[in-house]
Design brief:
By secondary structure, this protein is mainly alpha-helical. The chain has three helices and four strands; from the N terminus they run H-H-E-E-E-E-H. A hairpin with a 6-residue loop joins strand 1 and strand 2. It is rod-shaped, with a radius of gyration of 39 Å. Bound molecules: zinc ion (ZN).
């Protein structure tokens, strides 16, 4: 793994190898290397903190994923319960506005009947009143 501190150590060794005579240049070089040293330490600390943070975020993401799974499962259960609740406490007739039911006039007995969408097979369903098979697709075509 690349570590900037190793690079600074290498530069420090190079500078010492130069055996600079001029004290001012030597002092400047030493200060520059000290600054590089501090920067390398800071970068290293930041990297460690960042790695920890990333690990932490990943674990939060994982936990959140589990919560979402549980939440949406529970949400489905809650909806089912809500439907049941409406059904049980509603003294009126069953709510025919429910989107799963289709309101239609039977072409045979002319009664207004409500067909559960689940019972419509290939556009056809039995009239609950007279048991005649209602062809929904032809009814739509007739209107055209
Ligand atoms: Zn009918």
């Amino acid at each position: 793994m690349y570590d900037v501190r190793l690079k600074v150590s290498y530069v420090k060794g190079l500078a010492e190898g130069l055996e600079i005579e001029d004290e001012k240049v030597k002092k400047l070089m030493s200060e520059i290397i000290n600054v590089l040293d501090e920067m390398a330490e800071t970068i290293n600390d930041l990297k460690i903190t960042m790695d920890d943070t990333q690990e932490y975020v990943e674990s939060i993401d994982e936990d959140l994923g589990e919560l979402e799974e549980e939440f949406y499962d529970d949400d489905d259960d809650f909806d089912d319960y809500e439907d049941y609740d409406d059904f049980a406490y509603d003294d009126d007739e069953f709510d025919f506005n429910d989107e799963d039911f289709i309101e239609t006039d039977c072409p045979n007995c002319h009664e207004t009947v409500y067909i559960d969408e689940d019972f419509i097979d290939n556009g056809k369903a039995e009239c609950p009143n007279c048991k005649t098979v209602i062809d929904f697709e032809n009814m739509v075509n007739d209107k055209d």
